[in-house]
Amino acid sequence: MNLMVRLKKVDWLRHRVKRAKIYREYFADARFMSRHLLDGGSSDQHREYRMLQLIHALEKGLSHRSPRAFGAAKAAELVRLMAGASPSFKQSTAYTMGLSVLPAWLAFHEDKSWGDADALTKGREFVESETATTTMRTRCGVQLIENRDPCRWRSLPIDEFVASRHSTRRFAAAPVTDDEVSQCVRLAMRSPSACNRQMVRLRIAEDEEAKKLLYETLHGTGGIDYHTCRLGVITFDARSLDFCGERNQGYLNVGLFAMTLVYAFHWMGIGSCLLQFGNTFAEERMLVCRLGIPPTERIGVGIAFGHLESSDVVPASVRRKADEVVSVLTNEPASRTREI
Fold first, then answer.
1. Least crowded by CB within 10 Å, which of 32, 59, 155, 273?
2. What local confidence, expressed as pLDDT, does residue 152 receive?
């Protein structure tokens, strides 16, 4: 028995080594986040995320149940960011969203004679000068949804649809097309997104070398039909994160997007398997570098997907009962928390 094997059998030493590794990974996370924080950069991508935050704030104020004057400073900052945008940035979704939400915000205040008249005039002049030469591609602000009947949604067999989904590692020979991926991603983009920052990306390995690297680095790829699957990772952009409390927000957004994407795939007859990304920070940076992923992105989860075969064998996993998962929190000791 060599020395390394003997040392691994020493419990106290093994525990300390494990904890040291945890600290190393969190310190690496801290360095990474502090380097790329939203308010710490001036790239077009930083600008876009900041604009999306401001747009979201204005939209939220416009839909308030009790209308009031609001958002003058945010609208002014949005105008400032847009006025300083480069010609190429003016083609971005965030820019056209700004040109859509600003008129809605201006009309809301002008209709009620609220706010500083000079500021409103400057805002109106900017919007009119820009919309005269820009084709609107995105509409935002607020909209009234009438005849919202929940029974219409309840008539869908959602229980059967959700219950029929399963992870699979077997895929038919017919490849999933880019058009099919795009259709499913459009549905996945309806997932909740922190302040509508839309920070998540699907990065698919295209060439054989990239696919092999991803397959050999990700955890849990064993048994996947390598030659018939498409393989990728779902990432988030660290430049979208605003303060220390958001250090895990990117992973949450990856999870929300990933699950909606998996359901969209299922709806299209495409099977999938989410692959845990339990790699070290150094391994992640290696993948980011070698696969050409933008260096400000972090990998949240891997995914393999392909068309479903006509039959499959999958684990018949037993799920917890609902009353084992749900409880009602009270301002009392944990022992008195009420189970549902």
1. 155
2. 74
